[in-house]
Every structure is written in C-alpha cells, then in structure tokens.
Amino acid sequence: MKIITNNRKALHDYQVLDTYEAGIVLKGSEAKSLRQGAASLSDAHGELNNGEVYLFNLHISPYRFNTGPSSNPKRRRKLLLNMREIKKLYGLVQQKGNTL
C-alpha cells in the first residue's frame, strides 16, 4: 500500500507508542484529490466515538476538476480498523496522557 501523507511534525513533537494501518471513508472527489497528494495531517487528531474511530482536521484540498458540490476540506472522516485494534486503542486512550 502506498503512503499518501505522513505527519512528520507529530513524530517530532510527540512520543509515538504504536502505529496502525487503517482505511478511511472518503467521497469520490476526495479520493481523486488524495491521489494527487493534496492532503495535510498537520492539525489532525483522532477520537473514539461509539466504538468507532474518527479523524478530525485532516485537510484534503478540493479536487479542482470536481463539478459537483464540494465538501468541507476538514470534515470528520471515519477510520476503518478491526474491532480488536479499536479495543486496544480504547484501552490506551483511557490511560492518563495518551491521545490518538
């Protein structure tokens, strides 16, 4: 799988305990924009909500050839993880000082 974007700032500013490979729910124009490399993880963070993981503030620039309505570039996006991984993340987040 090709890595589209990476948050080098987070690796510098925070201690990374574990990494995961996750899918992400996108709209069609967002997928096309990501293929062009138009994404930024600099302000992004994850949250657990009702047994699901969401990514907030991932900036995906609007696809310039999109003819339909454009969506919010920093909208909430669902991450696709196994339930076992979500439970492990939930346990880690409950510990003091850990975030997604």
Automatic annotation (TrEMBL):
Which source organism?
Answer: marine sediment metagenome
Report one GO cellular component: cytosol
Q: Which UniProt keywords apply?
A: Cytoplasm, RNA-binding
Quick one: a GO biological-process term for this protein? trans-translation-dependent protein tagging
Under the GO molecular function aspect, what terms does this record hold? Answer: RNA binding
Q: Any keyword Cytoplasm?
A: yes
Kindly give the Gene3D superfamilies that the UniProt entry links to this protein. 2.40.280.10
This chain belongs to the protein called SsrA-binding protein
Q: Which CDD domains does this entry report, sorted A to Z?
A: SmpB
